[in-house]
Amino acid sequence: MTHTSNRPPESVRDEGPSVASRIVFLLCLGFLVGSLLGPRPAAAQKTDGAEASTLIERYRKARYRTLARRHLQREGALPVYPLIRLPTLTDSLRPARPSQASATAREPSFPLHDIRRVRRLEQGWFREQFASTHWAFLGESTDHTFLDTTRTLRLRACLQAQFGDPTRTLADRPLEKPPDSRTQFEYWFVVNDSIPVQVMDGRGPKGRGLIVAVERAYRSQLRALRDTLLAPLRHSDPAPYVDYYYDTRRKRWYRTGHDGQSFFLEQIPAVNVVPGRRAHLDTVRSSESSSSVGGSSP
Length: 298
Prior knowledge:
alpha+beta
């Protein structure tokens, strides 16, 4: 007697669950691929770009190092190429300083057709004539020219040679104790018939340069006026002179000047200074005197 079994064959029974699991696996795989290939945030893209750039740089550096090692192994040294001259506006990379001649040629000049020095006895006339004048002053500038860097006692000797005695000195003032001003000398001028100008020292024989004053209406032209008016001093030889000078810090009086051979600065008693009486220059002095200042060329 033959017995018939109702169970499906073994192969058919195992095939059903296997197909279902495969379908589920394929669906999961599709979702995973879609998430990977779908749109990504911008920040993630930038990060990947930076990482790619960094990776490229690393590769480039590694390649250069490899090439350098190969060259050193083969040649023993790296190649040295000659310097290449780059085109420049000048023959030097350092800024070229203009020559003194060209700088002077570019400086504006003040037209002077008349220069009148005010004499000592004309002080009253000058004050009355220009009593309402508002002054503009120019001291040492930043250009470091001859008129800025030369010692004042030498400029005073050149003024003496060019214009004669100053209009006013410290001895012409009433004696105060201490003096109300330590200005050693003043030269007053009237240029172009109507423009008042004053030239004076700033710190006596121990300073450098001069102070120049002019009517305020000519303030913008003051530098050009100074350079034009005092240009002859550059080529003037020092002339003999003597002035009184009061040192406000030491509270002492001095005679200072040029005796024809050397410059000097010597202390004197205060009683030697008489109001209204200017200092008198000795006819004979020794250039090797201990009171000389800086030799014959300060």
